[in-house]
Structures are given as C-alpha cells and as structure tokens.
Amino acid sequence: MPANSVPIACHSEERSDEASCVTGRHGSDFAANIRTVLKDATRSFVPTASALRMTCLACLVIMAFADGTHADWWNDAWQCRRPVAFPAKMSAKVFEVTVPTHGLGRSTGTDVRVVSNGEEVPSRLVAAGPAHSVRVVFERRGTAPHFVYWNNPAAVYKPQATLRAGVLFEARSYDGSVVKNLGEMHARWAVGKSQGTRYVSSVHLGHNPLGPGTNFLSRFVGWFVAPTTGKYVFATDSDDASFLLVDGVLVTQWPGRHYASRRARHFGTIRLTAGMHRIEYLHAQTDGGLLMNAAWQPPGAKHPVVMPPGAFVPLERATVGRIELNDGGFVPDFLPTNVGQAVLNPDATDYLVKMHFENLAPADVLETHTTRWFFGDGTTSADVSPDHVYLKPGTYDVTLVMVKGYEEKKLAAKVHVARDWNRQPKAIDTRESYYDLIRTYDISRMKPRHAYLAMYYFGRVAKREDVIRAGKVILARENGLPEETLFDAVRLYAETMRVEGKDFNGARKMLVTYEKRMKHAEHAAALALAVGDIDMWHLKDLEAAEAAYRRVIFTYAEKARKLTLRRALVRMGDIHRWRHDGKRAREYLHKAQSIPVNNLGPVQKSVRAGYIARSIEELLQRGDMEFAYEYLLMWAWEYPEDQLDGYWTELRVKWLIKNKEYPGGIAEVESLLKMNPKTPYAAGLLWLAADCAEAAGDVKKTTELLERILTDYPEALNKNAVLKRLEALKK
Fold it and tell me: DSSP letters of 636-702?
C-alpha cells in the first residue's frame, strides 16, 4: 500500500501527528475539532501500536461521516474508481474490463490503476478510447473486491505488466501491395494505421472484427500451453500472406497473394517444453476471400487441427459498477452499450446503430429524481435507461441530467457510436425494427444531417407519410441548412411526391425552384435531371423534358459529376427512341456509354453483358419478375447502346408478356424496328409482338405482325412456323 494512504500513515510509529492520520479534504468545523483533539492527545503521551490502531480506527470512522470520504480508499491522489464485477463461474486469472471514464482523468489512460486489498495488481492498458473509455487487462488477486482507479493529474507513468493470457488481435490499414517475406510484413505493419484491438478466442477468423474485410493487416499475439515436451507441428492457411512465429521463431509462412487452400499445406516443426509459450500470427489481406488460420499438431496427434480456444491461457471479461468519487459525493453515471445495428442504404455502407444507456444511479435516487437524456444528435429521452438509435456513426456528447425539485445534477460524456464489425449478417437487425423508436424523434430539434437521415430512413422503410412530414420540417429550416442537406431533402421530398403520384406539377415546381438556388453545379444538375424525369414519364411533355436534360448536358456538364451527365445523355437517347429517331438516339446513347461506370476492361465488359442477359433469361424462366426488371435496368444503364440492337428489347418484351402488359410489348417492337429495321432479331421480335396481340384478343393485329415477317424478312428461319400460325388464325 502506498505510503501516503491513510492506514499506513496511521500505523507508522515515526509519524504520530495529524498528518499521519488525516489526509485529503477537511472542510468542516467538526473535522477541524477532531484534528485538534488528536493533535493534543499525541503530544501528551508516547503512543503504543494498539493505541494508535484504536485512535486511527476512530479517526477513519469519524472522517468518513464528516467529509463523506471512503474509509477504504486506496490513495487520495486518485479521485474516481469503479468496483469490478467478475463472472459467477471463472476459470481465468486474467480479466479484461472496459471502464467508462466520462472524460475525468487523462485521455491517454496512463492514470488508470487496478487495486485489490489496498495493493495494485499487475495490469496493462489495452486501449484508451474511443471517446471517454479505457480497456484494461489485469491479474486477479484473491477474493477481495477489486477496483479500477483513475483521475489523478499527477500520476506518474507506470510500466505496463506483461500478462500472459488470451489472444489479442489488432488490425491496421494496408495499401494492398504484395508481401513477399516477414521483413516486408514488419515494414508494412510499422506504417499501417491501427483500426483497434480486440481479444479473440483463437487464431482463426474469416472476417475482420475491427473493420472492412479488404486491404488490412492483422496481428494475433497469444499465449498457449504445450501439454507435453516434444516436437510440435504448426501450420498456416490463409487468403493472402501469413507468418506464424512461436516464441519469436518463424515456424511456418505462406507469403504472397493467394487463395486459402483449406488444408495444412504450409507447416513447420519446433521443439517445445511443456508449459506456456507465445504465438504471433501476422496476416496481410487484399481483397476477395478472407481467412486467417493457425493449426497445430501436438506430439502424439495424428494430424494438424485448428488451435482450439482451450489451447490458450484463458482470459475472461469482467464488468464495472457505478462510479465512486473520493469525496463520497454523488454524480450521475451510465454505461453505454452497442446492442444492435441495421443496414441503412442499399449498398450496405451506412449503418444505423442502436445503443443502450444504463442509468447506474442507486434505486433510492431513481425514486426521488426525474431523468433527462440528451443524446448529442438533437434528440432526448425521459426514460430511466433508454435505447437510442443513431442514424449516423460518430462520437457524440451525451448528457444525463438528474433532477430533484430545484436541485439538478448532470454528467456529460463522449460516447463513441460505430457498427460492430464482429456482428455477422445473421445477427444484424432489420431496418423496420427501429421504426417505432425513430418515428418518435422531434425532427425540428435534430441536427440538420441527422434530420435528413431520419427522412431518408422513412423512405427506406416505405413510410412515405413520414418522409413528407420530416421533409416539411427540414425545408422550413432551409436558411440554416448546409446546401448538401438541403439538396438531399429536396430531391427525396420531390421523389416521394412523384412516387405517391399525388402532385406531379407541385413536385416539378419545387425542383425547378431549388435548382435555381443551388450554388453547386452537381446539385443543380441532379435537380434538373429529376425535373426532366417528371416531364417525360408523368407529364408526357417530351419538349420540356428535353429542355431539362439539355440544361444538364450543356449548362452544368463541366462541373457536374460524370455519372449525372451520363444519365442525362441516356434520357436524351430515350426521348429520341420514343421519336423513332434511331440515328440521334444512338448518338446520345453512344456518348453515354463512353462515360465509364466501372473499371472493367473491354473483355470483362463483354463477359458482364452476357452474364446479365443470361441472368435475365433465367429469372424470367423462374418467374422472378422483380429481379428480372432490375437486371433489365442494370443492362440498359451499363450498356445503353444495346437497347437499339434487339436482344435487350427481346427480353424486355418477354418480361412485358409475363407481366401481361401486351400493348407495351407491341410498342417496344414497333419502335425498335423503326429505328433499326435490319436488326437480326427482327423476325423473333415480330413473333413476340404477335404473341402480345393474340393474348390481347386482337386477331387483325396478330395477322398483320406475322405477315410483316414474311414480307419484310423472307429469309427468316421461323418462316414455316409463321405460315402455320397464319393458317390457324384463318380457321
């Protein structure tokens, strides 16, 4: 126990004045009187050890009541602590614990100590942050209570203990270059930016629990127990480079870029004595598949197997309780926990994160106080321990306020909100499951971007009335909105009105108004594109649509995004297709196709086009109309010129037939043949158009379409079938 703590000072025979017994804070007259009594008493006689113990015991009891201090406080220089709670059943001696510090103490965590029975126990700081938290591993000593102390501005840095337990995983950023040997691996590791650390159960992962699964480096450092002395075989299997070291010796490796083999093909042998040893596993991941796997074959085993969690020295997780202050005062306290996540956008790049905030106030305080939460995104709650869904990851200033009458106590702390990469897809929540919570948010009080994301969320769960409701609130604040947020809100609002089909002219008017207000060309171009779509698809005004698309192409093109220009060129091609002007349509579609949408080469593009076409055929055969339609749109977007060649039209008409849209099928065929009468698909397209007419009960139109095959395409391979079908129609 440190020399400046109360019990040691009071038991010292060299110092018997008040400094030996009373340290820390003494603000009351009662405490001052006690000091005077003790001072006079110690001057009047030479104390014995038993007398000192009795005097100090009385001193501690009195001071605990007088100043509100803790009699068992380890060291007065530390201002905060939390008790540690261990699992009911334990097999480990080393534990990891996450400690919310609420911004008290050093952000580096170097003032953190773990104490039991008045003595520090060996500990190591694993991570400081993110936000106001630290993670510590420590060695449990006996059954006495353990506490984590922090918040000492004068704390001297203490060397970290080496705790031989568990498997610590760390990931770092990586440029994706080939790693040919261990030296190159160490060099890449040294310059990589850390994505964090996490204890895992073994050296066996098929995902990155700390971030994206591409372009990262990983390092496992663990401690395992060799059951007997002898020769051990270690093997690695990985997707891309891996290196396995035992006690600092490189035992096996598989450098370079490669796929996993799913077998122990890369192995080495090392002699180990029975007992504890250190394993280090380094891995480099580019893209594609992902595997990090260390296997072993102890003496007497028949073949290598994945090192099981039981092979490693156990490390378990503990939890902490309510914050305690050195002066015995009360402060609101909470534990934030990530309890869920859901995909927000179609590309699965943005996530909603559900947090739970556990109020740690004692039961008697909860009975007499009201609670108010401020989550840092403009939303609030009056629940005691609420759940809250954040619409955007980040670090938030969360405030908990406890009120009793006119008395108010508050605690403000930074809370890090991020998706849990270790949570696999099967454990990810649905967007819809968060609706009941998000719909209660007061949009008018939310920060602008969060307000828009709430609006976007409502669109993703098809709650269009909520989209309109949120949009009205956001647009009412337009003068204080960043342009990007205003643009997104306007476009989503107008798109929702368009889909609802209630007020096409109103949506168009709003888009035109805000197009003129946009300072960024890309925003203006995107709104002009939306205006043209309403004109073309809903108001059937091709001249107005063409004018809107021309604004994109000729007014905004130089500063707008290339993909926005591409969309406008495709739309112009569509207009000329509707006008049956094949030459102009191909001109615009060719310009559109010259703007790349991906990084595929010519051969890859050809292969992809064939893949999309075959996928559509298969989906149509299965009757999966929704996905077939999406693939048709994908084909038209990536290869717009193909809409003039015949094959795309053939599959489009087949989709229309299955969807019983027969007039549309006839119109598609006749339109294409006016633009490209020499297409090799002509006879087959006319046959499909005849199918549409016959299904609609129009015998005259069916006959006309079949006769066109004989007159316009006499070389058609289906000529005999056409003749038989015409004969059948006459009967």
Answer: HHH-GGGGGTSHHHHHHHHHHHHTT-HHHHHHHHHHHHHH-TT-TTHHHHHHHHHHHHHHTT-HHHH
- The two structure tokens encoding residue 135: 């993670």
Is residue 541 assigned to a domain? yes
Torsions phi, psi for 316 (to 5 deg): -120, 165
Same domain, 503 and 530: yes
- Between CA 341 and CA 329 the distance in angstroms is 36
Q: For the CA atoms of 511, 515, 521, 522, what is the dihedral angle to 10 degrees?
A: -10
pLDDT at 70: 63
For residue range 276-298, list pLDDT tens digits in order: 999 999 999 998 889 999 999 99
Give yes or no for a contact between 667 and 688, defined as CB atoms under 8 angstroms apart.
Answer: no
Domain match, 306 and 171 both: yes
439 closest CA partner among 416, 403, 464: 464
Asked whether the beta carbons of 653 and 662 are under 8 A apart, the reply is no
CB within 8 Å of 347: residues ≥ 6 apart? none
Give residue 278's region: left, alpha or beta (phi > 0; psi -120 to 50).
beta
Asked which of 15-29, 128-142, 704-718 is least confident by mean pLDDT, the reply is: 15-29
Residue 455 included in any domain: no
Distances (CA, A) of 361 to 369, 370, 371, 402: 10, 11, 10, 9
**Residues 559-588 pLDDT 10s:** 989 999 999 999 999 999 989 999 999 999
- 380: domain CATH number is 2.60.40.10
**Over the stretch 183-201, which tens digit does the pLDDT of each residue have?**
999 999 999 999 999 999 9
For residues 79 and 155, membership in a common domain is answered with: yes
- State the Cα angle at 289 between 286 and 293, rounded to 5°: 95
What pTM was estimated for this model as a whole? 0.79
348, HSE (Cβ side, Cα atoms, 13 Å): 6
The CATH number of the domain holding residue 536 is: 1.25.40.10
Assess whether 561 and 487 both reside in one domain: yes
Tell me the per-residue pLDDT of 704-724, one tens digit each, with 9 for 90 and over: 999 999 999 998 888 899 999
| Banded pLDDT at 66 (limits 50, 70, 90) | very low
| Run of H or E including 282 | strand 275-285
- Separation CA 633–CA 660 (nearest Å): 19
Indicate the pLDDT class of residue 71, thresholds 50, 70 and 90: low
Using the structure block, give the residue that is written with the tokens 């306007």. Answer: 490
- Tell me 102's DSSP state: T
515 part of a folded domain? yes
* E strand or H helix that includes residue 404: strand 394-404
pLDDT tens-digit series, residues 667-682: 999 999 999 999 999 9
**Contact by Cβ (8 Å): 582, 608:** no
**Residue 250 pairs with which residues in a beta bridge?**
245
Task: Evaluate whether residue 304 is within a structural domain.
Answer: yes
- Whether residues 304 and 319 share a domain: the answer is no
Closest CA to 360 of 662, 100, 690, 74: 100
Q: pLDDT for 307-316, tens place per residue?
A: 999 999 999 9
What is the CB neighbour count within 10 angstroms for residue 75?
21
How many domains are there within the chain? Answer: 6
Q: Are residues 488 and 580 in the same domain?
A: yes
**Of 152, 151, 149, 112, nearest to 128 (Cα)?**
112
Question: Which element (helix H / strand E) includes 82?
Answer: strand 80-85
Domain that holds residue 90: 74-162+315-329
